[in-house]
Design a protein that fits this description.
Elements lengths: L5 H15 L33 E2 L3 E2 L6 H4 L9 E6 L5 E8 L3 H16 L1 H8 L3 E11 L5 E10 L4 E11 L2 E10 L7 H13 L3
Antiparallel strand pairs: 1-3, 2-3, 3-4, 4-8, 5-6, 6-7, 7-8
Length: about 200
């Protein structure tokens, strides 16, 4: 089998999700976002040892970069996101949404955490050549709370990747931060990512 890159693997998984249909677009009559929370800056991401982070513009919509874990079952809201890149293989993304109330924000955060915890099983079910493992890195004490998750994927042809994801909430506003690169759980900058998560939630309002 020819070698495939991490981007190709995630693109294939994302395509499968999109083909199955998602709930990420805003339906007719949906209430618009009532605030514009601040996003992380490039300097607030876990430092990369040999490349600076570059932050893209804040863009409307749910990011395709998170579709491999959150492509199905996510309620339709006015999501906004920012993608971050390095010159190498490490990337990150933040998506934020303002729901209609604190109760809706709490429910959305709970659902997102549930979807991430089940992501490894879904990835294995969608592609028999992918082995995936989940690890919980626990809560982060900030505002109404945040939680950090780890996901490792390995393919039958040898590609191995580590992802960190977090879900945080301040009142009715919810954010998800994702980080990923080649490697395994031992390569994950968990302490730095927890600081990034805390900063992301502190910037919500």
């Amino acid at each position: 089998m020819p070698m495939r890159t991490r981007a190709t693997v995630l693109a294939a998984l994302t395509a499968a999700v999109v083909a199955a249909g998602t709930a990420l677009t805003v339906p007719a009559g949906a209430a618009p976002a009532k605030a514009a929370p601040d996003f992380l800056s490039a300097s607030q991401l876990p430092p990369h040892p040999s490349s600076d982070w570059t932050a893209g513009p804040v863009t409307d919509g749910f990011p395709v970069e998170l579709a491999y874990c959150l492509g199905e079952g996510v309620p339709a809201y006015d999501y906004r996101h920012r993608v971050f890149r390095t010159d190498l293989d490490t990337g990150a993304v933040q998506v934020t949404v303002v729901t209609g109330s604190a109760a809706k924000g709490r429910a959305l955060a709970a659902l997102l955490n549930k979807e991430i915890r089940a992501c490894a099983d879904r990835l294995e079910e969608s592609d028999p050549e992918v082995d995936a493992a989940y690890r919980s890195y626990g809560p982060v004490r900030v505002e109404e709370g945040a939680r950090v998750h780890g996901l490792h994927t390995e393919t039958s042809w040898g590609a191995t990747d580590i992802h960190l994801l977090s879900v945080g909430r301040d009142g009715r506003t919810v954010t998800v931060v994702g980080w990923g690169q080649m490697g395994d759980f031992g390569d994950a900058p968990v302490a730095a990512f927890r600081k990034t998560t805390k900063k992301a939630v502190e910037k919500l309002y």
